[in-house]
Design a protein that fits this description.
Blueprint lengths: L12 H4 L18 H5 L17 H25 L1 E5 L13 E6 L35 E6 L2 E12 L4 E5 L2 E4 L2 E2 L2 E11 L2 E11 L5 E5 L13 E2 L4 E5 L16 E2 L3 E11 L12 H4 L7 E2 L2
Antiparallel strand pairs: 1-2, 2-14, 3-4, 3-14, 4-12, 5-6, 5-11, 6-7, 8-9, 9-10, 12-13, 14-15
Length: about 300
Amino acid sequence: MMSKDRGSARPPKDEQDGKTAPGASGAARPSGLTAADALAGRRDRPSGESKDTPPKKEESWIEIIKTLVYAVLIALVIRSFVIQPFNIPSGSMKSTLLVGDYLFVEKYAYGYSRYSFPWGLGPLGDLWHGRILASQPKRGDVVVFRLPSDPSIDYIKRVIGLPGDTVQMIHDRLYINNKIVPEKRVSDFVETIDGYQRRVPRYEEFLPGGKTHYILDSTPDGPYDNTKLFKVPPGHYFMMGDNRDNSDDSRADVGYVPAQNLVGKAELIFFSVNDKASWWQIWKWPWSIRWDRLFKVID
């Protein structure tokens, strides 16, 4: 304990008695350091310790692996529970979504099922049925879902029929619950295919509940423009593409989509590139990016 008198310090006991400790010479022991060493601030090191001890390689690799594992786990959590990127490979949702669009899908919009997880591997696998924290899609939502006949395949369509609804196409017009859905002709959708411009009739459709969106009708009275009357069963949804004559949807092989198969709600286009380049061909971006589609909210 320090003396309360901070202006002086006690000498060691042996010095008080005028004696030196046994084996002591009365002089400080040499440290083995030169004056230059002392000026450089060097100190004695324990014997066997190298002057410059390199880090252990094994520990370095362990830290790298741990960092990678943490990064993968964080990415999986975000992908499963928050948001997931998708790209559009076909034209079934023209003109709302185009081939080459990259979009974010909100995973928590309708709750979670086994298909919220990568490869459909939820905590209970095939034993998990239904959804937790479930909420029902609204009519008109653009939704990513797993194909009922092959759950390894992702589809993206618009919700047209809710559980209990009737849906039918008669001479190019959509009927929901036996009432015709209003539509209005707007400017044509213009696309370039193999160097040639193609104009496709476009309409604004007004769904029950107030949702409006654009549809294409390229072939009057086409194969999907006259259908039987569909009755949507409980816990299922009726999906249709906005490109009405070029969409495999609930009118054909897709059938009714179980609530369990919903993956999430399409929210935002964050990147879009035309057919002149792939997303990884950065050197072509100035001429291939569809700048007007970046960060576009999906209606």
